């Protein structure tokens, strides 16, 4: 996977964020108390997907599910608080990311599906996952089920259900990332690291936006995840919405009040995207997805297909993760390079 160029401020932020877990940081509750020092900082209360949760101490054996969630922990320098992570081996190159040391220091518990038996075997005290990012009523793996066996949960904010059935999303995607960084900063007493990351990410996104097209010059963009009968795509509450919008594109599915969902091809054709972004992961390669899009007859007259304007981003760029700001930078460069 290409390693996107990041501004110097972001590189500095990563250097600060990746200092060892023992580094002293100031907390809002107890200035000068860092790294879970006893007294002063705890208990702390955060709001997670509408629920107030109180922590009397920092969790010590966290199990994470999926690549973006795992890298949020690594970006905060919290590997020493992890029992391990669960994710398939289809998430791209993990050796060139800024926090690659986290993967080297932490146990890859399973390349399959996270489940209650696995986290019990890992002696987890907290599972960081999300709805459709590991938690699933059909599999019986839910925060409520874990609570019954004495294991706490933290839900990825991108996955929060919003009260319309199982639809997900309660805030803008980048706000979800910043919210989780700040919440975890409080939970683990690393608030300074969290604020450093959030500040650097905001700066990177602002730099990308400053060079992005505005108004009618913004190209219409469609996110294609997978699917042939019906395309799986992003609504307003999944990462691609903010990535596309802040990179200077007009996200054609911005009216979908959900995160990841399916639509009909007729809607895609009607909205005539000028650029298609492919989500690269899974058994179907980006090249096979591109070949399908270019050969699918109903799309033949869509602008993006006629002009071969197809961009590939990796899965971890597009789900909530600390790679989202760099994805904004990369897509902004791609969109600036389009010719009329």
Automatic annotation (TrEMBL):
Keyword set, alphabetical order: Signal
Domain of life, per lineage: Bacteria
Signal peptide: 1-23
All residue ranges annotated as the Fe/B12 periplasmic-binding domain in the record: 61-340
Coiled coil location: none
Entries under InterPro entries matching the protein: ABC_Transporter_SBP, ABC_transptr_periplasmic_BD
Family assignment from sequence similarity: Belongs to the bacterial solute-binding protein 8 family.
Protein name: Iron complex transport system substrate-binding protein
């Amino acid at each position: 996977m290409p390693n996107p160029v990041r501004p110097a401020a972001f590189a500095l932020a990563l250097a600060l964020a990746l200092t060892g877990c023992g580094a002293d940081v100031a907390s809002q509750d107890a200035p000068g108390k860092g790294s879970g020092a006893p007294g002063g900082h705890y208990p702390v209360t955060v709001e997670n997907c509408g629920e107030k949760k109180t922590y009397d101490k920092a969790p010590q054996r966290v199990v994470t599910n999926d690549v973006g969630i795992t890298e949020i922990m690594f970006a905060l320098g919290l590997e020493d608080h992890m029992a391990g992570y669960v994710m398939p081996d289809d998430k791209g190159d993990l050796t060139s990311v800024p926090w690659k040391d986290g993967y080297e220091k932490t146990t890859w518990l399973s390349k399959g599906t996270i489940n209650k038996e696995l986290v019990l075997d890992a002696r987890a005290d907290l599972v960081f996952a999300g709805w459709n990012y590991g938690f699933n009523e059909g599999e019986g793996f839910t925060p409520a089920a874990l609570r019954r066996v004495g294991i706490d949960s933290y839900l990825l904010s991108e996955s929060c259900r919003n009260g319309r059935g199982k639809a997900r999303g309660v805030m803008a995607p980048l706000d979800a990332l910043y919210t989780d960084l700040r919440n975890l900063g409080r939970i683990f007493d690393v608030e300074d690291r969290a604020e450093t990351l959030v500040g650097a990410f905001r700066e990177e996104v602002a730099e990308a936006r400053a060079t992005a097209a505005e108004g009618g010059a913004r190209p219409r963009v469609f996110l294609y995840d997978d699917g042939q009968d019906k395309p799986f795509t992003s609504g307003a509450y999944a990462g691609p919405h903010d990535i596309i919008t802040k990179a200077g594109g007009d996200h054609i599915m911005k009216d979908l009040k959900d995160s990841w969902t399916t639509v009909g091809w007729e809607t895609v054709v009607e909205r005539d995207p000028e650029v298609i972004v492919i989500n690269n992961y899974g058994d179907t390669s980006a090249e096979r997805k591109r070949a399908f899009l270019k050969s699918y007859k109903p799309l033949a007259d869509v602008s993006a297909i006629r002009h071969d304007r197809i961009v590939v981003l990796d899965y971890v760029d597009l789900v909530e993760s600390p790679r989202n700001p760099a994805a904004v930078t990369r897509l902004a460069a791609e969109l600036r390079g389009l010719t009329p």
